[in-house]
Design a protein that fits this description.
The complex is a heterodimer of chains A (324) and B (284). Chain A is α/β, with parallel strands linked by helices. Chain A has helices at residues 46-53, 79-85, 107-116, 123-136, 142-145, 155-167, 185-202, 213-219, 237-242, 247-255, 295-299; strands spanning 4-15, 18-30, 35-39, 61-69, 72-73, 90-93, 173-177, 205-210, 222-227, 230-236, 305-306, 310-312. Chain A is globular, with a radius of gyration of 21 Å. Chain B has one domain (75-279): MetI-like fold, CATH 1.10.3720. Classes of the chains: A alpha/beta (324), B mainly alpha (284).
């Protein structure tokens, strides 16, 4: 049985100007021990989909469909039961490591806090565990860090502490929402390496939301590409990078600058912009920006169909012979 | 990057650099100690009448350093007793206000939506009642006692505190660390009391130091009107009321307790101002 099973999940936000769909019916499955990346532009619904899975949507958000975590239905679950799941069930690492640590709490208290929300442990035992966890996420000088405040740490260390805080209650599923976006490149590489080590050591299930394809290539086994609130393609990482099937995925990959590009060559951006949620075109949402579109793309929404390595939602997926 | 030691030590260091605030703080501590040990320095008990010394002016030789009132009671001792009573009531009333106001406001800010609206409309309604009336009714319905007085004053004072805290809590609830705490499975009480309230403490402390003098003034006002502290107990309010009656013949009876009141109120205000600056990290 999959650890996380999402069926026809929809997320809508009530706004003064009407209901805005952020996620438009997605299916996905994450097995125990998997490492999956959710990729897409800002506003593609990738973060909201995962927040909905933990019952963390903003007050004006509503959901439909089904999310099962270890067999339990999450949507509509009472807040109290959700609280028990958050932490030992699923842990979160957010993009903004500066903001996700409470400023007046020492690092030690912060970590003890996230443990004591779920287990009655003495402070001493919890602090010892906190120290072990800081060592595990490779924070130098763990003993000293315990008594420091968040503002005394560097950005990279703070993100490691935030990861440690999420790991303290030993979550079965760790959800990392753009964990490297706020960090500089060298620290990004370290954090990616850290996730890889943690997965090897703890056999942790990891879902990582990102728009950074470099992070994806270095970490995930499987990639799910989202566009305008829907899944457009899913494949194992090597296949997706070598043979993308959806024109959007191909466009994203082509847009990556390469070291071999001649200097001064313009970036190969995908023309146009994603449609604003709530004003989606009929048919395929990507059609207006797609080079492979034809009349049918504007009329009929393509179904997500199985491929050899995953799934793709396109009337005219790229074939082996196509170059991109 | 700030030095180790954290926000509070930084704030204490900044406060130590503010002369007016520090002087006020020292003066308050000294006065507080004096109200406790001071009466022992004089050999006059606060409620002993001395028929031979009625309305005596300040005189070092007689032992009545600040004179006596019109019943011959020593004014030095009575003023210290009064100051102790006024300070005590003000501190307790502020503590009551803090407890109710912070909890009320933090819960409203945390819950948001309908709960917030209901809690704050309740505050609005109480706000609309003239609160002196409210205290007067309470003291009339129940027996008069210093205990009731501070509960009544505190019960009125929490309204503004609740509003201040609720506003701050609303802002804090949008911050990422609150979402992170919720995402790690923290329940409402843990979020409110571990993550929201401690972040408000700076504002709350400043507000509390500014609230204490208000409480003293309300207490004095009520005692002045005759519905606060009753004879033979003294408070600054009823001492001033007594003194006002003899203002022309024996000005010291008014001046001594009034000066004491002014010093206390001034000091708390200076201290509050200093704390506000010290706890605002953007200011130096």
């Amino acid at each position: 049985m999959a650890l996380l099973q999402v069926d026809r999940l929809k997320v809508d936000f009530r706004t003064p100007s009407g209901s805005v769909p952020a996620v438009r019916g997605i299916d996905l499955e994450i097995g125990e021990g998997d490492c999956v990346a959710l990729v897409g532009e800002s506003g593609s619904g990738k973060s909201q989909a995962l927040l909905a899975c933990a019952g963390l949507l903003a007050a004006n958000g509503s959901t439909a469909g089904s999310v099962r975590f270890a067999g339990q239905e999450i949507l509509g679950m009472p807040e109290r039961s959700l609280q028990r799941l958050r932490g030992p069930g699923f842990g979160f690492v957010f993009q903004d490591s500066i903001g996700s640590l409470t400023p007046h709490l020492r690092i030690g208290d912060q970590l003890v806090e996230s443990l004591q929300a779920h287990r009655t442990v003495s402070r001493k035992v919890a602090l010892a565990e906190a120290r072990t966890m800081l060592d595990r996420v490779q924070v130098s000088d763990a003993a000293k860090r315990l008594s420091q405040y968040p503002h005394e740490l560097s950005g990279g260390t703070r993100q490691r502490v935030a990861i440690a805080a999420a790991l303290m209650p030993r979550p079965r599923l760790l959800i990392a929402d753009e964990p490297t976006t706020a960090l500089d490149v060298t620290v990004q590489a370290q954090v990616v390496q850290l996730f890889r080590d943690l997965r090897r050591e703890l056999g942790m299930t990891l879902v990582i939301v990102t728009h950074d394809l470099g992070v994806v290539a270095g970490l995930a086994e499987r990639v799910i590409v989202m566009y305008a609130g829907s899944i457009v393609e899913e494949a194992t990482t090597p296949v997706l990078f070598r043979r993308p099937r959806h024109p959007y995925t191909a466009g994203l990959l082509a847009a990556l600058p390469r070291l071999t590009d001649p200097a001064g060559q313009p970036m190969r951006a995908i023309p146009g912009a994603p449609p604003p949620p709530g004003r989606l075109p009929p048919g395929c949402a990507f059609a207006p920006r797609c080079t492979r579109r034809d009349a049918s793309c504007h009329q009929q929404v393509p179904a997500l169909a199985a491929t050899r390595a995953g799934r793709v939602a396109c009337h005219h997926p790229l074939q082996r012979s196509d170059s991109w | 990057m700030k030095r180790a030691g954290g926000l509070w030590l930084d704030a204490a260091r900044r406060l130590a650099g503010k002369r007016a605030a520090m002087a006020s703080f020292c003066l308050l501590v000294a006065l507080g100690l004096l109200t406790v040990i001071g009466p022992a320095l004089s050999h006059f008990p606060p409620d002993e009448l001395d028929w031979s010394m009625m309305g005596a002016p300040p005189d070092l030789d007689s032992g009545h350093w600040l004179g006596t009132d019109r019943l011959g009671r020593d004014l030095f001792v009575r003023t210290l007793h009064g100051a102790r009573m006024s300070l005590g009531i003000a501190l307790l009333a502020t503590a009551v206000s803090l407890l109710i106001g912070v909890t009320w406001g933090a819960v409203a800010g945390y819950a948001g939506g309908r709960v917030d609206a209901a809690l704050m409309r309740f505050v609005d309604v109480l706000y609309a009642l003239p609160n002196i009336f409210f205290v007067i009714i309470l003291t009339v319905v129940f027996d008069r006692s210093p205990m009731l007085l501070f509960v009544a004053i505190g019960a009125v004072g929490w309204l503004t505190m609740a509003r201040v805290v609720r506003g701050q809590a609303l802002v804090l609830m949008r911050r990422d660390f609150i979402e992170a705490a919720i995402a790690s499975g923290a329940g409402p009480s843990r979020v409110i009391f571990r993550h929201v309230v401690p972040n408000l403490l700076g504002t709350v402390i400043v507000y509390a130091t500014l609230m204490i003098p208000q409480m003293i003034l309300i207490e004095s006002f009520l005692s002045f009107l005759g519905i606060g502290i009753q004879e033979p107990l003294s408070s600054l309010g009823n001492l001033i009321a007594d003194g006002a009656m003899e203002m022309e013949a024996a000005p010291w009876m008014l001046l001594v307790p009034a000066t004491c009141l002014v010093i206390i109120v001034f000091c708390f205000n200076f201290l509050g101002d200093g704390l506000r600056d010290a706890l605002d990290p953007q200011d130096g």
